[in-house]
Structure formats: structure tokens, C-alpha cells
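Figure S4 source data
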Amino acid sequence: MNYQGVIYHRWQSSGLRVKAIALAAIAASTLLVLADRTRANPYTEQPIIQQTTQAEQASANETANTEAESQGQSSLILWIEIGVAASLLAGLVAAFLAYRAASQVQTVPENKESDDGKLNGFMGILNQDVFSKNQQEASKQLEASDHPQLTAIGEDQQLNQGKPEKTPHSPSSQAQLVTSPTSMSQEQEEEEEAERSQLQTEISQRMRQSLDLEELLKTAVKEVRRALKTDRVIIYGLDSASWEGTVVAESVAPNYPKTLNIKIDDPCFRDRHVEMYENGRIRAIDNIYQEPDLTDCHIRTLEQFAVKANLTAPILKNNQLLGLLIAHHCCQPRNWQQSEVELFQQLATQVGFAVDQVSFQQQQEAEAERSQLIRDVSHRIRQSLNLEDLLKITVKEVRRILKTDRAIIYGLDPDNWKGVVVAESVAPGLPQTQMVKIDDPCFRDRHVEMYKKGRVRAIDNIHQEPGLTDCHIRTLEQFAVKANLVAPIVKNNQLLGLLIAHQCSEPRNWEQHEIDLFAQLATQVGLAVDQVNLIEPM
């Protein structure tokens, strides 16, 4: 058996304390042996008894010289051994003291961390318990290991004093888990921005899926109210001629007044706000009673609909102001956040894009429908066997196409320009004009030449038309007329009569495509009648 290897292995695996005890025992044993040798050394006894005789003096002198030499060498070896043993013992004492000092130093990082905990405020308080337990565990493991190298203690000190290792239980990793308010705020802003972007995308997709303008506007106000969590959202359509407005779409919470189809004429809006909204202005009012720019009449109007705060953004199409997207908060004043204002502006822009797209599609569809209607009406008119059937078919189809209350054909006598209603299609409950004769001197004097040249006249409201005389207005009122369209029936520059549409339920803003369609239908009637004088059937 290799006893030297076993002894070396056990020596290397022994702890510092075991080695210190072993070396102390060896040093003590060595000192005892050396002390005994010192007492037993015959050269230390003085003096040497002279028992030899004179005869033996010579040989004794020679022997004494040899023994003196041996005595000096033995004394030198003895003192060397004593010095080595003393040095070994001193080293063991120094090692023991160093070990004690190092054990005390290990507690310093714990105290330092406690100070750091105080400096770190609530984060230090959260992590203090976990950190103290970890330090106690580390100290117990260090004492249990009895590491043989003093350098390991120094490395532990450097580790504790330097940058902490990011273990799952270290204060550094714990601090990482406790996110700072700034980080939380940034993360929250990013999440809100992503949510707004997703919301805007969803609303845009839903609006694009709308098949017509009415459905689009309903979808828009519903989705915007859901996004802002407010009490009412409306779309306020504007007439670009007068800047009067009508609520054309509304989504409102229960128990609040409804505003749908309400018309508002605000002179202040025309004078002060149109241009600003055309430039893209967004207006946020947190409290209508603390807004210096609001007039008393405006506040009273808002109070009628229980409005406490509102947001207003323009709906634009090719830089043309079509209307306003308005959010009403009714339960209490509301501090509109910048993110909400920006989202509202983006949604208003999306409404403008969607309206433009739907309007274009509707224009294309309407154009195709008008072309088909003209072909159908022309075909039916030509199929008429006599003039009376032709005229009846014409007024019936015109009223159906324009969705109006009355359509008539007014035949003219070219000699005196008196007229008579020769054909009529009228809604139930309204006065009938069939065979009514009208003599209008103003017509002869002012309008004949213009109608011969193909003039088409659209009157949206008879009471707001400056060219109408009082007598003309009274005549129209007899037949409950609120708005009308008038187009000439002309053949070879000869004025045969007038095709007239009456809106009786309310004034009507005639669209340009309706005016164009009406003029084309009047032209088709002239072609069908050919050169027949419309006054002849009577």
C-alpha cells in the first residue's frame, strides 16, 4: 500500500483547522524532544572532572580536541532544530489569527447591504428579508466547508464587495423584478398606443365594410363611442352653401336626449369656426362652464342635450368640410387625455376617407342606375300608343326615380304662354293639380326665354328663394309645395312645356346628379312627343 499517497491525500483534503492542530502537535512534540536532548547532552555539564592520570594526558588532549569539534556541530544542529520548531509554531499562531480575522470580515457585506437597503427605499425593504436569509445560508456553507485555502476567503470578500452575481435570489435580480415607475409608465404607454392602433384598424375595417353611406355613418358613431367610452357620438353634416347643419348619425347611451335629425343654424359657426375646421382644427372642451370661448346661446344649446364636455373634429374630403365628428360626455365634465384627442382625430380622418370611398362608389352606382333608368323610361315612353299614355308613364317614373311627392307635366300655349297641368303623379294625402290652369304674367315676361335655352331651375326652399314673387309663392303654397325642380320640354328650340317635381313634406336640397337626371328625362319626353303641341290633348 502507498502510505505516502494516502497520507498526502488526507492531508490535502483536511481543513485548515485540522492542519493547524496537527502541526501544533508536531511542533510541541519536537520542542519537548529538543528540550530533553538539551538536558541529556554531556557537553553541557561543567566542569569536566579530571580523573585521568598524567600518563594519559597526551592522548586525552587529542581526544578532547576531536570531541570539542563534535560538540560544536551538535550544538549548531540543536539550535537550528529549535529555530525551525519555533518558526513553525509562530506560523500556526499567525494562521489561526488570520483565520479568525477572515471569519469576522465575512459579516461586513451583510451590514453594507443593509445600508444599501436603506438607500434604495421601498425596493430595499422588499429585498432585505430575502438577502439576509441568503447571507446566513452562505456563511453556514462557508463554515461547514472549512476550505483549506485562505485565498478562498479573500475571493469571497472580493465577490461580496464587487458586483453581485445575478442569481434568482440576489438583490440585483430582485431589483430587476421590481420594475421602476418610469419603466411601468413607458410600458403602459406602449400598450395603450398598440391598443389605439389596433382599435383604429378595426374601426376602419368595419367602416370600409359598410355598403352605403347611411350604414357607414351608423357604424362610425357606434364604434367611436365604444372606443372613447363616452355618452354620445354624433356626425353633424354641413351644407357647404349656408353652413347649416343636421345630425345625420348618432349613438347615445340610454336615458340621454336624442339629437338625430336635429337641424342647427349657428351664425357664430359660420363666422368664426368654419375656416379653422377646414384647416383641421380639433377642439376639446373639458367643462362647458369653464370654456371662455363658448357663448351663452351655445351653452344653452349644449345643456338641452345634457352635454358637460365634448370633443369636435372635422370630417374632410379633398380639403372640403363635409361635417363634424362630435363626442359628448354627459354624466360629468371630463379631462380629455392627449391620447384620446389624437385617437379621435385619427377616427375623424378615417370617417372622411370612408365617406369619400363610399360616395365615389355610390356616385358610380348612381350613374349606372341613372343610365339604366333613362333607357328604361325612354323605352316605355316610346312604347306608348298615344300621347296621354306617354305623359302618364313619364310622371309616374319620374316620381318613382326621384322619390318625390309629386311630378307633373305643365303644357304651354305658345301664343299666350298660359299653362295647364296635363299629367300628374302625386302621393296620397296631397292636393291634386291635374287639369289646373295657371296664368302667370311673370313667367311670360321673365322665364320663357331662359327655359327655351334649356335652363333647369332647382329651388330647395320656396321661402328662401329670392327670385320668387309673392304671388308665385302663394300659388305653390296652395299645393303644399316646399321645394321644386323645373326642366323645359324642348323640341327644335320650341318650348312645349315643363317637367316639374314637387317636394311637399319639407324643403329639399336637390343633389346635382338628381338635377342632371331630371334634365335628361325632360329631354327624352321632348324626343318622344316630337313636334306635337302638348296643349292639343285638352
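Figure S5 source data
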Amino acid sequence: MALKDKLKTKKENTKNNIPKNIVTAEELIDYIRFNKNPWRNIFFSFLRGTAYGLGIVLGTAIVLTIIIYISNYFINYPIIGEWLKMIGESMTLSQ
């Protein structure tokens, strides 16, 4: 394979590796800067993971609080009340 063909293939591969949503030269420069510094990439990935984990914990806590608050209104109904009492007793016994 001639040198010219190798360069052409390399150019096409580079062209295919650039994401499709990059339109302007400024966006391309930002993309290159972001990928050149691996520590910055690791830091932002860490922040993203931390925010995701915190969001999961807070969201779960809020949803469970609302469910428990609403279930307190159903405690006096015959079938649902007995079921909720069993759940409450099993939770206190497990502690």
C-alpha cells in the first residue's frame, strides 16, 4: 500500500471518529481539549457518578416517605390494614 493510500485511510478513520453532533470548529476544539486531559475527564466522570448516586438516594428516600405517609391512611381498612401491620411488625422485628 502506498503512502498516499495510508494517509487517505488514516484521514477517513479520523473523520469517522469525530462525533456527529460536532458542527463548528469551536466545538471540535472543545472536544479535543476535553479528550486530551484524562484527569479532567476522570474528575468530571467522578462528579457525574456522585451526583447520580446522590440523586438515586434522595429520590428513593422521598418516594418511600410519601408511600409510608399515604399507607398510614389505609391502616384501618380490613385487608390492607392487616397486611400493613404485618409489614410493620416484620420491620421492627428485623431491627
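The longest helix spans residues 38-71. Residues 38-95 form one domain.
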